[in-house]
Specification:
The complex is a heterodimer of chains A (about 775) and B (about 230). Chain A has about 775 residues and is α+β, with helices and mostly antiparallel strands. Chain A is about 55% helix and about 20% strand. Chain A folds into 4 domains: about 1-55 and about 255-400, no CATH class; about 55-250, no CATH class; about 400-465 and about 630-779, no CATH class; about 480-625, no CATH class. Chain A has 23 helices and 26 strands. In chain A, the strands form 6 sheets. Chain A has a 6-stranded mixed β-barrel. Chain B has a single domain (about 35-60, about 75-230), classed as P-loop containing nucleotide triphosphate hydrolases (Rossmann fold, 3-Layer(aba) Sandwich), CATH 3.40.50.300. Chain B has 6 helices and 10 strands; from the N terminus they run E-E-E-H-E-E-H-E-H-H-H-E-H-E-E-E. The chains are: A alpha+beta (about 775), B alpha/beta (about 230).
Chain lengths: ~775, ~230
Amino acid sequence: MKAVRTLNLKVFRDLKSQKWQFAAVIFLVFLGVSLYTSFYMSYLNLSRTYDTFYERTNFEDLAVTLNPRSPAPKDLLSEVRRIDGVEEVYGRLSAYGTFERENRKITLKLLSIPEELSVNRLVIVEGRYPEQGEKAVVLLKKFADYNSINVGESIPVSINGKRVNLKVVGLAFSPEFIWIVESGSWMTTPKTFGIAYIPQQTIEKILGVENVISEVHLTIYDDGRADEILNRVRDIFADYGISASYKREDQPSNKLVKMDLDGFRELSFMFPSFFLFISALMVYVLLSRVVREQTGSIAILRALGYSRRDILLHYLTHSLVIGILGSIPGAVGGYAFSVLMTAEYTKLLNVPYYIAIVHKDVLIQGLAIGVIVPLVAGISTAYSASRIDPAIAMRGVEVEARKVKIDRILFFTKKASMLTRLALRNLFRSPRRTVYSLLGVVASVTLILTSMVFLDANEFAISMQFDKITTYDMKISTSNPSIYREIKKMPEVERAVPIIETWVVFERDGVTKTSILYAIGHDQDLFNLYDAGGRRHHPPPDGIVLPEILAEKLKITKGEDVKILTEFGREEVTIAEIYNQPLTVASYTDILYFSDKAGTDFNAILVKFRPGMENEGKNRILDVKGIRTDSIDDLKEYIDEIMTFFYVFIYFTLLFGASLGFASIFNTTTVNVLERRREIATLRMLGYTTGEVAYSLLIETVIIGIIGIAIGIPLGYMTARLFFESFQSEMYYMPFIISGMTYVLTAITTFVTLLLSLLPGIRYVARMEIEKVTKEMVS
Amino acid sequence: MNELLRLVDVWKTYRMGAVDVHALRGMDLDVKSGEFVVVLGPSGSGKTTLLNLVGGIDTPTKGDILFNGINISSLNEAELTIHRRENVGFIFQFFNLIPTLTARENVMLAAELVENPRDADEVLEVVGLKHRADHFPSELSGGEQQRVAIARALVKSPPLILADEPTGSLDFETGKMVLGVMRDINRDEGVTFILVTHNSVIAEMADRVVHLKDGKVARIIVNEEPAEPEELSW
């Protein structure tokens, strides 16, 4: 429309005249939109990456694994195939082998593959599938890369005491091992644990068995019948000692993948809400100031013949421009960031590729949110601008005196200096603006505190895990008493403690939940039991300690009995205690209590070496045949590697939180200074120095800061708590810990940010041309 | 000359807190097309209220205002907006230019409101400011700003221009120059002017002088031989 052309030009000039204030709001809209698009697109892209990977490889719906010591006849697979609803079945043999590389003993889980894989197919990225009978393996790509193993190389693997040279003929990715987690184990590191696929005939020959399997993986037609089919498969193999059984949703790797996806989805809503909420308040504050300042101009526009609608649209255009300038780069940047995030994140995983497509719907949603939020925020101001009566506006705006009310509130300041009283009165001069500044600080404190709580909780959990809970140096998986005796006698070994470590399925009223069960000794100190609050516990002499999250899901309380299924069979146990442990969601019991039920004294040994003899001790144990070892240091190193991504993310959040506070206070302070420029110029004319005027501004900001922190800290505490709750899963438990220093650091960060945001306002005061400002006409 | 404007028993009452203030108390006035009318009166006599009502930025409490025979006192908000767009140009004491727009853009701001506006540069030339078209108001002197305001009023080719104390913020020489521009437009283009002022000297250049007192027309003086602005002295 022709009539709005010059008015549009005015919009850009208005924006230009207060470019930094508008830039601050645009920046927040940009952050809000880019965070939304990046997280939500990452969520969708990761979902699609996993889904296509699963689809391409025909990922299992159900799995049952047997005790490797008692494999079942392969013929039983035909019974599985006959179950109504079963689509494809893959039976395999599994065995553990070890090999040494760069002075490290690496455990290899060997999984057999038939001539043609129908379920959990591999994506070979280098090399080929091995021929049946060939002494060859396909290794997981990341494991091979981590240990610098190349295709064509032969690795000497010890399997059941036999040494076999296995040629690496291919490198692959498997849908089963996006995260390499073994059921019944907490975490593994590619430094000491890997997966190798070996032809069925080859492993049978090595193990001296024929036509047996120890795992069944299958796909089904109807997900609704998963439980029923799983039960039937379990029944078929019941006589062979089932060591684990799960549906796709409980498959260890998939469970972690889904947990992370949920995190991405949560974040895509939580973070943007903060930024967009504060940007909305800032749009209101800024636009109100523009309208107040332009009351005369509005009257002129109306007198010239511009309609109310023209004025309404004119000021809404300011909001629209903010929205467009913030959301277009926000959506584009969000997409770029989502590609980067998806790429970096998938580097941590075992996936052959990642999908990073543009989700137009998410871009449109991001753009729409980024445009709608400022528009909605600007509606009331634009509307009031359109209702300005030109006849009244041209006479000048009357400022309503609030003296009586303010003085009543500020009775205690009578003895304070004039500048202090002025600062306090200014807080009440535009109460709505003060409240909005306050909300900006509150949101900033909340975001900073929530991010820092993650650091605290993570630090606490990691230090609890490695300094207090697992104080051993090495874990050796074996149930051989002679190996235990041998290890105990080693000169480097200070202590060796047997434990039982197994997966456990709890069954109650048709609900089944899986976790790890540790049966540990009462008096040992290499594997200690702590609750999430950091208090030491001992395994109960009778019964099991259950984590709260599982107790909630199973609707079970202390003292009740529950049926459990472990690799040692079915039992009924009493729930002795319920509490969460930091990091791991595990169940605990006393080894004396459980070894009776399990029919075994132990299946793992925890070892603590004498100080200074760790390396010799490790090397000596690596020479022991037929065991699998896990070193705590290797695990720690691997966790640190994974945590790098997490820390980068947290530091970004901290930065965003601080910029939120900066942008919010910067805007309200500069709007304050600009609106009061005549008053400030008068103060300067009277003889007040820039420093004294700055002091007055500082008092206002400090008061807003103190109140903002006072409200923001409990709110941040609650938000973080809520956020933590949503992050808790059946696999990991993040303890909610906030150290005193975190509160102090949050307050300091907030204050530093506030003071920095004050500087441009003070600079303006210092550079103000006093005579010019005092002579300005009020139009 | 045809009658352009007629006010019949026009009242305007403002509510100031608990008190009713009568700005106009039954004003009657006729203005002919092409006239240069100067309205004189002390503060509070209703001068600005009269301009606001005629300009359609305010509505009377009672009475009729006929513009070209149309009663604008009964128009709704949208119709009044059209009246302002098509029939009236405003000139104010404090120029009231949009500070973020250049001289030309300020003129175009008004031009874009009507179907067939005059060329912005042409009207700037009429007021002698074509060479300053790309300057922002802050880069112009008071007299130049007021001439831009005149150009802005003129660009829509309105039959009536309302000027509220147009020389009030200007020095003597600049004021006379601005009045000269207005008089030229009135004579050369036949645009009707109603100029409100405190300054009785300006009345000498008017075709008719309307004296207001207490919201009413106290007297009307017809100047048989209006003075040229250059001859004025205050």
